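Example 3.2
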Amino acid sequence: MRPKAVLKILGVLLMMFSITVLPSLTIALIAEDGSTMPFLVTFFITLLVGLTLWGPLRAHRGELRVRDGFVIVVLFWTVLAGFGSIPLLLSSNPQLNLTDALFESMSGLTTTGATVLTGIDHLPPSILYYRQQLQWLGGMGIIVLAVAVMPMLGVGGMQLYRAETPGPMKDSKLTPRITETAKALWYIYLGLTVACALGYWFAGMTLFDAVGHSFSTVAIGGFSTHDQSIGYYDSPWILAIATVFMLVSAINFALHFTAVRARRPGVYLKDPEVRAFAGFIITVAAVAVVMLIYWRSFDTVGETLWHGVFQVVSVGTTTGFTTSGYHWWPSFLPVMLIIMSAVGGCAGSTAGGMKMIRAVLLYKQGRREIEKLIHPSALIPIKLGAKPVPDHVINAVWGFFALYILSYVGLSIAMTATGADLVTAFSAVTACLNNLGPGLGTVADNYKDLDNIGKWILCAAMLLGRLEIFTLLVLLSPAFWRS
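Structure, written as tokens:
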């Protein structure tokens, strides 16, 4: 590892993050909501620490290696969560201790959407905006943003991009230069955010709420400016807009780039992952709506359809918005939905979970093993579309799945050791590891009543989920630290 290059990049990224505090500071000044000092202190502390790290090393021109990229990504997300918690820790409304402030910050940056806050409707506007913006920055990954806008760093960007980008296909680039690739992703991300905000605004939200909810919708985060989440508005139009943009944001952004550049919307229909994702959402939504109608959970069929489809899409994309909550739904539906979040959206999207492409490959691999029992000597390739998938990708998917299950079981057992009941423990880990947010049991509405140790465990689960396990666990390997 090259510590000078790592510290230099970390310093630059912290300075960039300090700039993102300025919009919240501006809102605090205009609204006079009492949060000016917390944001001012956060800005100067973050900027000074960044300058301290970067200043002595600004002339260093060492090239990054792959392992340096992993270290920077993990360090930055953990350090950023710490600095991101400062405004929440210093604010008089809400009044949070260190654990709760860090939990809220980590939840925002990892786009999990789990919250320890109550009385959200009465929070200062600057704090409300800050929470939403944290999710927006975390959605595409602020490190990809850094690679896009800071080629003057003088170090390779592909190492950061590979460590940060979700999904098993990390080596593919949309453009020959990694900087242009990151820019293309962020242009699409910004365009979707603006379109979503305008849609919400025209549908009846205030401009402030429209911008805030567009941040968490496109980032697939789930934070809201109201305790009742999207259900606060009781509007089918707002639910429809949210559903569309959650689905769009859960699709591989590389496909969006291809469709826009080639002006060929048909690429979505040809993509096997998108087809599998659409089929999965439609199937679960149909089951949920039929069961809700059977149990007469809502007053009318139309109301059942809107709530059922919206909640399935919200959980299936790991966004975590709620209308009236799904924890009270009858029969097996709550368990089905929270397990559904383990699949998540498509690779290369802002969604959490294992990603649909991994689920498809696991299914195809399982089917191939069954066919080999019948035809032991047959050579049966696994294909996505018409293209065979290399064996090293299949092996990586199996490795990821094994680590995912081990992490899930280990974290769940650790949660039960804190005193949480089984439903709360397993659903909280599921919701945080998949970056979903709302769980079942005690954590159906919020996480404030959990033990502090439990919140730290869930912070680790959020980070594992956001960095897709390998990026974090690779640092624990002795081989990683050998020169």
